[in-house]
Inverse folding.
């Protein structure tokens, strides 16, 4: 059981430096055993941002607590790597199979309805329909929570449906008057 030195460090910075000196080498060894060297270095760097939670670190045995932080950092890094790989695959598939531009809209009513949506609403609907991304994937792309995406997507679809219905009514009235 490793403990911080008994003499109370004079400042928060001193306490952090003492903690870092105590846990850095074991955390590095642990990370290197569990992943590739570059990811291990990133995980160690992320874990060593302990100064943000310095008051939460147990003074009597800080290493297990730091291992738990490192384990979560590694899990986050691995999840991010998997998301990145899936995104690269999707981009490669999309690039190979799809035109670079948005598909042309042949439905005038739909074109009119989409034109009345905000840029954000249109982008959200495009990602969901044309790119066929799930809300959790859109959340990563936009940097918001999946729940926020679901709510915004629901509202955008509802608004688009209302605008489409209005646009179709207007178009049908124009067609009758011809």
């Amino acid at each position: 059981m490793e403990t911080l030195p008994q003499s109370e460090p004079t400042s928060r910075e001193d306490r952090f430096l003492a903690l870092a000196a105590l846990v850095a080498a074991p955390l590095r060894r642990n990370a290197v055993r569990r992943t590739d060297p570059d990811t291990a270095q990133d995980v160690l760097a992320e874990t060593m941002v302990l100064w943000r939670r310095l008051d939460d670190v147990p003074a009597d045995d800080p290493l297990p607590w730091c291992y738990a932080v490192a384990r979560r950092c590694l899990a986050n890094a691995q999840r991010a790597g998997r998301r990145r790989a899936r995104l690269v695959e999707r981009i490669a598939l999309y690039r190979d199979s799809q035109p670079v531009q948005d598909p042309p809209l042949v439905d005038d009513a739909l074109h009119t309805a989409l034109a009345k949506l905000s840029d954000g609403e249109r982008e959200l609907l495009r990602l969901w329909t044309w790119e066929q991304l799930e809300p959790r994937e859109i959340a990563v792309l936009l940097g918001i929570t999946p729940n926020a995406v679901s709510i915004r997507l629901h509202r955008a679809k509802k608004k688009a449906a209302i605008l489409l219905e209005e646009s179709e009514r207007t178009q049908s009235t124009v067609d009758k008057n011809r």
